Amino acid sequence: MSNDPLHGKTLEMILVELEAEFGWSELGQMININCFNHDPSIKSSLTFLRKTPWARKKVENLYLDFVKTKKSKNP
To answer: Does residue 37 lie within any of the structural domains?
Structure first.
């Protein structure tokens, strides 16, 4: 079993989870990219993130921080 929280997670799963937790507005403040700030949707964000490695990395890092924080609150 992998200790990597990203293992087995698709970009779509990560995005859905983050959007449910924070909402588009807060996501757009945390990671200032247009797909979160202007007419956001899962589909448009996935299209952008799949083509833009630096933005995808920021989303993955945010997810890792989120998972770590969630674990520390609920051991």
So the answer is: yes
